[in-house]
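Recap from last week: sequence in, structure out.
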Amino acid sequence: MSRAGATCICCGLPSMTMEDIRLEGKAGRLGAMMTAVVLDGPDGKEYRLPTEDEIRLAAEAENEVERVFAEIPFGIPDEQTPKGGSGAARAFSVDGYGFDRWSKLFTPRQLLALGTFVKHTRTLG
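Predicted structure tokens:
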């Protein structure tokens, strides 16, 4: 992916313009797929394909997000993201891709990890 759009990983030809990607995002048709697992190897980061169990567990995280955030004041971070414009809001322009709420910036697995961290951190105070 570049400023011009996305390129097909199979043939190398342009497949979608940035405008196409924004329209798909606003329509709620962008998603995520686990393609690699990062490991800490002897020479730094290493990558491998995810196992079926890892893919299944990542999908199951969606079922746990609401349960974890039910125990946190204000719940899931669902406030609106900044709209484009000027200043700092302009640099944070994810709204054009359909990411109009903070919770949409994270996968369910990431939200579950963040919620679990917040839940346990609050017990320390």
